């Protein structure tokens, strides 16, 4: 670390709440330019970040969406803070080789994603999107049927929810489902509180909700065989990553009725073509990766970074440092 008590810092992540004031006391914010405020969207790569660092004679970075790779490491940095649960926008190996601490914010959006999961289930099982559209289009009575006939659904109270993944988001979803009266079961080989095998969970659950991380081991973990195990009338939710299921298998499974409906918040490449079969299915509710998009997520990530910067700059080990070995104690 340098002898400066307040490192000159470029910030391209949104900061919110009391944590922002704390950050500004700990470091000298020489540029505050959040990516999310740019129209059109601006995501910087290593060259772009290097230019900002050099233009502002900066010694540190706080980022969220920008990619801290390559040319950035031509510039001496005291720390890199990524306001993500998984700082996959940072070349952690290169940072470690350069002796630069990398901070992250695990669990920052767990409550937000869990709430959207509940919302997708209610929207899906209670036909909210279709009922809204019918109301706007003056189709209160449609083909001789009233809404009470067309839009009957199942309550959460009394159903069995199967969580695939019991990390921060899975745990945040668990108590919410339980609070609504559901029985919750879980599969997670890394959590001893998750007692079910994947196959047993799929066969038992009325609702299957995906909260596993996207890794080589979990990619495509829900395919044709897994969908076939689901109960008739089951609902499939994925607010994690589209890579966890096989896209074509999900389409065929929805056509077969197992699952009967789906709520999805992520698509490969962050895009779903209007021509994709999922976009034409009335038993599917789609949102464009907005699970973590709350002001509370920004407030939480700011507080987490502020607290860890205070630890780092006072010579203590930060709670959420990705590469503690650069401090000589990991």
Describe this protein's structure.
This protein folds into two domains: 8-108 and 294-327, NAD(P)-binding Rossmann-like Domain (Rossmann fold), CATH 3.40.50; 110-286, NAD(P)-binding Rossmann-like Domain (Rossmann fold). With 330 residues, it is of the alpha/beta class. The chain has helices at residues 18-26, 46-55, 92-97, 110-125, 128-136, 147-150, 168-179, 198-204, 224-229, 247-256, 295-313, and strands at residues 8-11, 28-32, 60-63, 79-82, 102-103, 160-164, 183-187, 207-210, 235-238, 261-264, 284-286. It has eleven helices and eleven strands. The strands form two sheets. Strands 7-6-8-9-10-11 form a six-stranded parallel β-sheet, with helices on both faces. Helix 3 (92-97) links the parallel strand 4 (79-82) and strand 5 (102-103). Helix 1 runs parallel beside helix 11 (295-313) and helix 4 (110-125) crosses helix 7 (168-179).
* CATH superfamily descriptor of the largest domain: NAD(P)-binding Rossmann-like Domain
Q: Approximately what portion of the residues adopt beta-strand conformation?
A: 5-15%
| CATH third-tier fold name of the largest domain | Rossmann fold
Unreliable stretches covering 5 or more consecutive residues: none
Structure class: alpha/beta
Helix fraction by DSSP (H/I, runs of at least 4): 25-40%
End-to-end distance: 17 Å
Cross-sheet strand order for the largest sheet? 7-6-8-9-10-11
CATH top level of the largest domain? Answer: Alpha Beta
Main sheet specs:
6 strands, parallel
Order of helices and strands: EHEHEEHEHHHEHEHEHEHEEH
Q: Would you report the number of β strands?
A: 11
């Amino acid at each position: 670390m340098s002898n400066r008590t307040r490192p000159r810092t470029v910030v391209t992540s949104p900061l919110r709440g009391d944590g922002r004031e704390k950050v500004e006391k700990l470091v000298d914010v020489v540029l505050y330019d959040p990516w999310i405020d740019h129209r059109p969207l601006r995501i910087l790569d290593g060259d772009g970040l290097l230019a900002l660092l050099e233009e502002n004679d900066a010694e540190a970075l706080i980022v969220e969406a920008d990619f801290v790779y390559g040319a950035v490491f031509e510039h001496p940095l005291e720390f890199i803070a990524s306001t993500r649960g998984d700082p996959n926008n940072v070349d952690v190996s290169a940072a470690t080789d350069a002796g630069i601490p990398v901070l992250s914010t695990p669990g920052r959006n767990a409550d937000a994603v869990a709430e959207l999961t509940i919302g997708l289930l209610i929207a899906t099982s209670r036909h909210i999107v279709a009922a809204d559209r019918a109301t706007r289009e003056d189709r209160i009575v449609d083909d001789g049927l009233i809404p009470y006939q067309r839009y009957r659904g199942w309550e959460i109270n009394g159903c069995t929810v199967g969580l695939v993944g019991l990390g921060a988001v899975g745990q945040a979803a668990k108590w919410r489902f339980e609070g609504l009266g559901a029985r919750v079961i879980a599969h997670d080989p890394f959590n001893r509180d998750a007692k079910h095998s994947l196959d047993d969970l799929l066969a038992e659950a009325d609702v299957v909700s995906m909260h596993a991380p996207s890794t080589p081991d979990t990619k495509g973990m829900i395919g044709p065989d897994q969908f076939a195990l689901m109960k008739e009338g089951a609902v499939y939710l994925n607010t994690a990553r589209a890579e966890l299921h096989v896209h074509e298998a999900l389409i065929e499974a929805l056509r077969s009725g197992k699952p009967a409906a789906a709520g999805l918040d992520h698509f490969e490449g962050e895009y779903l073509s209007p021509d994709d079969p999922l976009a034409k299915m009335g038993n599917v509710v789609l949102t464009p990766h907005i699970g973590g998009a709350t002001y509370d997520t920004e407030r939480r990530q700011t507080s987490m970074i502020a607290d860890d910067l205070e630890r780092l700059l006072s010579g203590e080990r930060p709670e959420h440092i990705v590469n503690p070995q650069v401090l000589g104690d990991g």
